[in-house]
């Protein structure tokens, strides 16, 4: 299929690479800044323009991978008749695209995508939705050329999964960030924690999180918790999160 990619950030780049590797033709990259459009277009070996330029009208699919807020304020002079237009956001309704085309939908990658981290994940879970059954079937056929992990999810389910994704990915990564910073300041090697991090993630293949609970908060080892909190007095951000997480773990342990 011929594809125009709108946006040149992480999702546009990672999906753009996959689209090209899967044998589709990227006709053009369109982005807010010409420089970002050029970088992606050079990699995908196609022409580019900025938002003010002329969009190629010959594509079968227009992939809108811009930030969530930019999508709602996007210039709808880009009317694309009945061309398939999809966005990639978890928390934005497909209906933001109704003024762009009579065939619109969503192809949401339920994965953390970063154009600078290689190799790219294989079989990115793609959650798809569209305004009619016919459009959904067309989008599904396209999505299945990119990944073996394609499923359908309406606006509400996608939103729910996006919330869960923020908890398991963005929040976990922030905890890793804080722990790495803490280790650096205390002269401890953060890399020593990698086997623990990996084992925690791998166990989820076979166990639910409630079966994997260990640690001082679950055991209610109050003296250990107090010792940790004293050590964190110089790290107010971590101290705050430690207290809130401990409280939440204790409450959920009581609820089980
Ligand atoms: N990254 C992920 O892990 C991930 C996963 C699933 C879904 N998503 C969704 O995918 C979408 C893109 O995310 P991303 O991570 O690729 O974001 P990103 O790396 O920050 O890239 C955002 C893109 O939006 C463009 N943009 C920003 N404001 C704009 C405006 N006012 N008009 C036109 N273009 C504008 C930027 O263009 P310039 O560079 O030209 O300024 C850039 O190309 C979002 O809806 C996000 O929720 C992201």
What's the short story on this structure?
This protein is of the alpha/beta class and about 260 residues long. The protein is built from nine helices and eight strands. It has helices at about 10-20, 35-45, 70, 135-145, 155-185, 195-205, 215-220, 220-230, 235-255, and strands spanning about 1-5, 25-30, 50, 60-65, 85, 105-110, 125-130, 150.
H/E series: EHEHEEHEEEHEHHHHH
Q: Remind me, CATH topology of the largest domain?
A: Rossmann fold
Q: What is the molecular shape? A: elongated
Q: Would you state the CATH class of the largest domain?
A: Alpha Beta
User: In this structure, how is the largest beta sheet organized?
Assistant: 8 strands, mixed
In percent terms, what proportion of residues is strand? 5-15%
Work out the count of structural domains: 2
Enumerate the distinct ligands: NADP nicotinamide-adenine-dinucleotide phosphate
The fourth-level CATH homologous superfamily of the largest domain is: NAD(P)-binding Rossmann-like Domain
> Tally the helices: what do you get?
9
Radius of gyration: 22 Å
Helicity level = 40-55%
Number of strands: 8
- The low-pLDDT segments are none
What's the end-to-end separation, in Å?
51 Å
The chain-level mean pLDDT equals 95
């Amino acid at each position: 299929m011929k594809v125009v990619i709108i946006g040149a950030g992480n999702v546009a780049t990672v999906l753009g690479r996959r689209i090209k590797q899967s044998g589709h033709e990227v006709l053009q990259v369109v982005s807010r800044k010409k420089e970002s459009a050029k970088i992606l277009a050079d990699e995908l070996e196609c022409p580019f323009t900025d938002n003010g330029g002329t969009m190629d009208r010959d594509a079968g699919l227009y992939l809108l991978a811009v930030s969530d807020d930019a999508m709602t304020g996007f210039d709808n002079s880009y009317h694309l008749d009945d061309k398939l237009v999809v966005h990639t956001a978890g928390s934005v309704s497909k209906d933001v695209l109704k003024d762009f085309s009579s065939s619109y939908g969503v192809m949401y990658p339920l994965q953390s995508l970063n154009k600078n981290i290689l190799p790219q994940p294989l079989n990115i879970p793609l959650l798809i939705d569209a305004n009619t059954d016919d459009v959904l079937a067309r989008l599904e056929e396209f999505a299945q050329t990119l990944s073996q992990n394609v499923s359908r999810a309406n606006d509400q389910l996608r939103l729910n999964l996006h919330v869960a994704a923020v908890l398991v990915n963005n929040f976990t990564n922030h905890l890793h960030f804080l722990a790495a910073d803490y280790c650096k300041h205390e002269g401890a090697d953060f890399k020593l924690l990698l086997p623990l991090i990996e084992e925690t993630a791998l166990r989820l293949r076979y166990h639910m999180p409630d079966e994997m609970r260990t640690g001082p908060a679950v055991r209610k080892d109050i003296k250990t918790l107090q010792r940790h909190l004293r050590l964190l007095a110089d790290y107010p951000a971590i101290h705050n999160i430690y207290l809130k997480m401990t409280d939440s773990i204790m409450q959920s342990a009581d609820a089980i």
